[in-house]
């Protein structure tokens, strides 16, 4: 049942949750000094193994203890297939390493009959070993973003072209970003840096990488249009009766979803809802017209489309889009900046300032 050569099963016991195997090790005494070793009692040790039939597995070994005649050291009989540090089989350690990347430590611990601390310790050793193998390559197209981890924003550096993680910074402030960028020896390889509209990123890149083109990720810009529509929805919802409030709450996701991702039935519901609320319809159409700017063939056409969009904003929804219009004024396309789709889709070529997506 164990399929572990070198171990002979002498006794088997089982409960509703576990199999226990008492085994004998077929091996010779460990080598030591020239004077040899003498028997010095036994010690029973339990090693964990992969589950069988959904039950935990314990392998009990009466390990022979030896004492060296020459140096006086106490030695234990080696057990094949067992990990030197953890009292479990090598295949169990390998299973934990492979699965701890995708599952929680507590879930693995429950499945294998181990403590969460043990699973966490094995993962940390595995992660340290794997990180030592990494050979960071300076990306040609770098991405700067952030994640909120452990109650703090952390800077995230990515390779946009290859869709890989490069580094995670302790925070996202300007000093941390400059320190990281300045530490890259071959930073002249970086031709393009994709960022959101966090101003410290722009200042850090301009200071350390003046030769690189700064790219504003489309995702972050269009998200501001969605936030404006949400602001209109929430403010308008307050003035509605209960039935109207519930309708706007339940169907809000349809207004924020791209129309090309809605089926015919959902589109019919969306059009019917917008027909009942003219203010929401105005906000929704403004949001969609802003998204259409990215369908322009080139920079002049895109600039013209944006200028027309801003001038045509209805007065009753214009205040909700103030954050967006202010950001666009602070990040003018006529400077060295480019507005393209971000790291979720591979960037094709930075040679054209404005691409059709």
Write the layout of secondary structure elements.
Layout: E1 7-14, E2 18-25, E3 37-52, E4 55-68, E5 74-76, H1 90-99, H2 105-112, H3 116-133, E6 141-149, E7 152-159, E8 164-168, H4 174-182, E9 192-195, H5 199-208, E10 213-217, H6 218-237, H7 242-250, H8 252-256, H9 264-276, H10 278-291, H11 299-311, H12 322-330, E11 337-340
Parallel strand pairs: 2-4, 6-9, 9-10, 10-11
Antiparallel strand pairs: 1-2, 3-4, 4-5, 6-7, 7-8
Structure characteristics:
alpha/beta; 12 helices; disordered C terminus; 4 domains; 5-stranded mixed sheet; 357 residues; 6-stranded mixed sheet
Topology pattern, helix = H, strand = E: EEEEEHHHEEEHEHEHHHHHHHE
Largest sheet: 6 strands, mixed
**Whole-angstrom Rg:** 31 Å
Say what oligomer this is.
Answer: single chain
Tally of individual domains:
4
Task: Output the structural class.
Answer: alpha/beta
| Average pLDDT | 84
Biggest sheet, spatial arrangement of strands: 8-7-6-9-10-11
pLDDT < 50 runs, ≥5 residues: 334-357
Shape: elongated
Count of DSSP strands? 11
First-last Cα distance: 58 Å
Number of helices: 12
Strand content: 15-25%
* Residues in helices, as a percent range: 25-40%
């Amino acid at each position: 049942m164990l399929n572990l050569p070198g171990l002979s099963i002498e006794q088997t016991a089982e409960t509703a949750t576990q199999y226990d195997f008492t085994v004998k090790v077929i091996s010779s005494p460990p080598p030591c000094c020239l004077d040899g070793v003498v028997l010095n009692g036994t010690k029973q040790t339990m090693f964990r193994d992969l589950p069988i039939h959904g039950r935990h597995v314990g392998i009990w070994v009466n390990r022979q203890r030896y004492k060296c005649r020459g140096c006086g050291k106490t030695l234990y009989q080696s057990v094949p297939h067992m990990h030197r540090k953890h009292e479990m089989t090598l295949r169990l350690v390998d299973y934990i390493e492979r699965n701890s990347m995708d599952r929680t430590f507590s879930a693995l611990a429950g499945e294998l009959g181990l403590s969460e601390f043990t699973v966490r310790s094995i993962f940390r050793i595995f992660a340290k070993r794997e990180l030592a193998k990494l050979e960071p390559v300076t990306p040609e197209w770098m991405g700067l973003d952030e994640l909120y981890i452990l109650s703090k924003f952390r800077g995230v550096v990515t390779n946009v072209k290859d869709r890989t993680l490069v580094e995670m910074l302790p925070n996202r402030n300007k000093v941390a970003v400059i320190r990281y960028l300045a530490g890259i020896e071959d930073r002249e390889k970086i031709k393009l840096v994709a960022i959101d509209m966090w101003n410290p990123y722009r200042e850090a890149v301009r200071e350390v990488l003046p030769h690189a083109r700064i790219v504003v990720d489309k995702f972050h810009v269009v998200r501001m249009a969605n936030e404006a529509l949400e602001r209109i929805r929430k403010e308008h919802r307050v003035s509605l009766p209960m039935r109207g409030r519930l309708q706007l709450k339940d169907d809000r996701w349809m207004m924020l979803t791209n129309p090309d991702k809605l089926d015919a039935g959902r589109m019919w519901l969306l059009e019917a809802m917008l027909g009942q609320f003219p203010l929401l319809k105005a906000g929704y159409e403004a949001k969609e017209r802003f998204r259409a700017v990215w369908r322009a063939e080139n920079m002049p056409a895109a600039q013209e489309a944006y200028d027309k969009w801003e001038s045509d904003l209805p007065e009753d929804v214009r205040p909700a889009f103030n954050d967006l219009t202010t950001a666009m004024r602070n990040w003018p396309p006529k400077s060295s900046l480019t507005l393209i789709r971000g790291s979720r889709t591979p960037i094709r070529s930075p040679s054209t300032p404005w691409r059709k997506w």
